[in-house]
């Protein structure tokens, strides 16, 4: 049986409450600090690489807020 959107989002929220998720976010915050350090970049290729890294990092770091917003919207549209 396929999960509903709300079940999927609720499962994602449960995952984000784990210690493993908290550790992953810490790792990504550390990576973000390194990717933002333009002093270590010596070429435009390095800058583009850092930009790509930051896009992925920001996606992961904002996933919890985006998931919470999507869950709230889904619950508003589909009240139990």
Q: Helices and strands in order, then pairings?
A:
Elements lengths: L4 H12 L2 H18 L7 H34 L3
Helix pairs in contact: 1-3, 2-3
Structure characterization notes:
- The protein has 80 residues and is mainly α.
- It is 80% helix and 0% strand.
- The protein is built from three helices and no strands.
- It is elongated and about 55 Å long.
Compute the number of structural domains. 1
What is the number of strand segments? Answer: 0
Helix content: over 70%
> What distance separates the N and C termini?
19 Å
Q: Give the H and E element order.
A: HHH
The average pLDDT score comes to 92
Structural class: mainly alpha
Number of helices: 3
Low-confidence stretches at least 5 residues in length (pLDDT < 50)?
Answer: none
Q: Quick one: overall form?
A: elongated
Beta content comes to under 5%
Key descriptive features of the protein:
80% helix, mainly alpha, 80 residues, single chain
């Amino acid at each position: 049986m396929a999960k509903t959107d709300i079940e999927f989002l609720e499962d994602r929220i449960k995952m984000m409450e784990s210690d493993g998720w908290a550790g992953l976010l810490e790792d990504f915050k550390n990576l973000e600090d390194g990717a933002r350090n333009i002093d270590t970049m010596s070429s435009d290729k390095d800058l583009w690489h850092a930009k790509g890294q930051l896009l992925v990092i920001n996606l992961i770091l904002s996933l919890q807020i985006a998931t919470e917003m999507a869950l709230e919207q889904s619950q508003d549209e589909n009240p139990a």
